[in-house]
Specification:
With 332 residues, the chain is an alpha/beta fold. It folds into two domains: 176 residues, Rossmann fold, CATH 3.40.50; 148 residues, Rossmann fold, CATH 3.40.50. It contains nine helices and 14 strands. The strands form three sheets. Strands 10-9-8-11-12-13-14 form a seven-stranded mixed β-sheet, sandwiched between helices. α1 crosses α8 and α2 packs parallel to α3. The radius of gyration is 21 Å and the shape is globular. The relative contact order is 0.13.
């Protein structure tokens, strides 16, 4: 099926250039020529160095550190494409920031995820593609089409090839239990749940002052290889508390995996020095070389996103790609 737009163009901000290059290599197109820089006064400047008139434009940008700069880069690039008369503009956002601010959980606080959705639309996006939202309802914050993909099949494929018959999946909290259950079902192994509550520091009023406190484990992990699975790892404190709980309950070996490796501050060092034998993650976010170690395995989502871009450009359903669990782009 042919596209109703002219040829496609892929542009990238500075959020994850390595991933953008990998996507373009997969689909056999050059990465679009764009200047994204910052003036001395910290104003961000974007210039498209090639025509996008009536083109099918895809803007790839991971919302990583420095977060505010990456958000502004994305918004300004979308606006530049809109003002250059692009035929269709799709924002490819491997990691959507502010996913935890999807509701008012305290008085007088914003819903920043909704604000970010509004800004992306106003800037000029006609379509959004993202992966593994922290809260699925964020899709409803947009009035434009949103395709939420998942990198979980890559993780499932990786661990299924190990052929373990003594493994168990562990959800680090009850909020992730449903997705952890699906992960365990696809691997054909049992599931254990860590029950966790956040204890608020009475001397602080902001929710960031709370620290995770694991209280209980539902399931038997004694003598088993445990695979802790979560959507993202930020500070790693929750992951390490669950790890210690599993050790106390007699776990044989401990592995961990996540879709989004934020690895803020010294999280990488803490996990490297912990009993976790291996952390398996994806390249939705870039991981600096100094934060990598031999026990870190990074699986690329470039093949998946490359095929999604080709399907969207050709007017082919993206959903059918995920109905077949053996699709090569899903790594299984």
């Amino acid at each position: 099926m042919g596209s109703r737009f002219d040829e496609l163009r892929v542009f990238s901000g500075n959020g994850n250039l390595a991933l953008s290059h990998a996507i373009c290599d997969r689909i056999g197109v050059p990465l679009g020529d764009v200047t994204v820089t910052q003036f001395a006064n910290e104003n961000i400047f974007v210039k498209l160095n090639e025509s996008v008139r009536e083109k099918d434009v895809f803007v790839v940008q991971s919302l990583c550190s420095p977060l505010s700069d990456r958000i502004m880069e994305l918004l300004i690039m979308l606006d530049a494409c809109k003002r250059a008369s692009a035929g269709r503009i799709t924002a490819i956002i491997p990691y959507m920031a502010y996913g935890r601010t999807d509701k008012k959980d305290q008085p007088r606080v914003p819903i920043t995820a909704r604000l970010l959705a509004d800004m992306i639309q106003v800037a000029g996006a006609h379509h959004v593609v993202t992966l593994d939202l922290h809260a699925g309802q964020i899709q409803g914050f947009f009035s434009i089409p949103v395709d939420e993909l998942s990198s979980m099949p890559l993780l499932v494929s990786y661990f299924s090839h190990k052929g373990w018959d003594d493994a168990i999946v562990v959800s680090p909290d009850m909020g992730f239990a449903k997705r952890a259950r699906n992960f365990a079902e696809q691997l054909g192994i049992p599931l254990a749940l860590a029950e966790k509550r956040r204890v608020q520091d009475l001397n602080q009023t902001h929710s960031a002052a709370s620290t995770p406190d694991v209280l209980n484990l539902i399931g038997d992990v004694a003598g088993k290889r445990c695979i802790i699975v979560d959507d993202e790892i930020a500070t790693g404190k929750s992951m390490l508390k669950v790890t210690q709980l599993l050790i106390d309950r007699g776990a044989r070996e401990i592995y961990a995996c996540c879709m989004h490796p934020i690895l803020a501050a010294d999280a990488a060092r803490c996990i490297r020095d912990s009993p976790i034998r291996e952390l398996v993650t994806t390249d939705t976010l870039p991981i600096a070389p100094e934060k990598q170690w031999p026990g870190l395995t990074i699986l690329s989502i470039s093949r998946m996103l490359g095929e999604v871009i080709q399907r969207m450009h050709s007017g082919v359903s993206v959903d059918t790609m995920f109905q077949w669990s053996g699709h090569p782009a899903l790594g299984v």
